[in-house]
Structure formats: structure tokens, C-alpha cells
Design brief:
Elements lengths: L2 E5 L2 E3 L5 E8 L7 E7 L6 E8 L3 E4 L7 E6 L4 E6 L8 E8 L2 H6 L11 E2 L3 E5 L2
Parallel strand pairs: 2-11
Antiparallel strand pairs: 1-3, 3-8, 4-5, 4-9, 5-6, 7-8, 9-10, 9-11
């Protein structure tokens, strides 16, 4: 059974940092693109970063570029999202998702499209507030 489990969320003050983890079971990361999404109350779920997309690259949404870093530990089957300089606008539930889409793996195209992702975690809440 394929499972994705996010952890590491919590309450942090503006300007602070958090590291989220996404641990997979039932498959290996080598064949999958892993993407972090987030959804704030009343807003659409948005893709913010992917790894192993676009021929082994990482991609970021403009809203997090320069502040967030995605990485992987294949030995632990875990993807991390290091989030720095957090702001209240980053408050959301954060999800990781996986896809074996060749299009996304090879070119990175459509990495933001939710319909391409087959597996989702249940999310972890991040709240940025003073």
C-alpha cells in the first residue's frame, strides 16, 4: 500500500523556520516526482515545490523561491521542505503528493497540475503568527 505521511508542521513566529518531512512507503522516490502543495483557508491548493521533476531538477513557485528548499533522503524515503523567513501568508495546510508522470519527470511541464498526482498525504498544518 502506498502511503505518504507529512510531519513537522506547527506554530512559528514570522521570520522563523520550519522543516517539513514527507515519508513514503510502498514505493521509492527514484521513479516518482514528489511535489509539495499547500492550501490556505478559502483558497485553492497550490503547488509550491517539486523534486525529481524536469530531469532530476527542483522547481519552485515564485511565492516561495529563495525561502524554501526541497531535498530528499532516498535512504529514508523522505522528502524535506525547509521553510525559512516564514510570513503569515505561508499559513496553510501543507501536503506532499507523488506522481510517476513521465512528462513531469522529464520536462517539469504541468508540475503544478493536481490531476497528475496519484498519491497524497493527509497534510500538516503550518501557522505563522506572532
Amino acid at each position: 500500500e502506498v502511503q505518504l505521511v507529512e510531519s513537522g508542521g506547527g506554530l512559528v513566529q514570522p521570520g522563523g523556520s520550519l522543516r517539513l518531512s514527507c515519508t513514503a512507503s510502498g514505493f521509492t522516490f527514484d521513479d516518482n516526482v514528489i511535489t509539495w502543495f499547500r492550501q490556505a483557508p478559502g483558497k485553492e491548493r497550490e503547488a509550491i515545490s517539486c523534486i525529481n521533476c524536469g530531469d532530476g531538477s527542483t522547481l519552485y513557485a515564485d511565492s516561495v523561491k529563495g525561502r524554501f528548499t526541497v531535498s530528499t533522503d532516498n535512504g529514508k524515503n523522505t522528502v524535506y521542505l525547509q521553510m525559512n523567513t516564514l510570513a503569515p501568508v505561508d499559513t496553510a495546510t501543507y501536503y506532499c503528493a507523488a506522481t510517476r508522470s513521465r512528462l513531469i519527470r522529464r520536462s517539469g511541464s504541468n508540475w503544478r497540475v493536481r490531476d497528475f498526482y496519484n498519491y497524497w498525504g493527509k497534510g500538516t498544518q503550518v501557522t505563522v503568527s506572532s
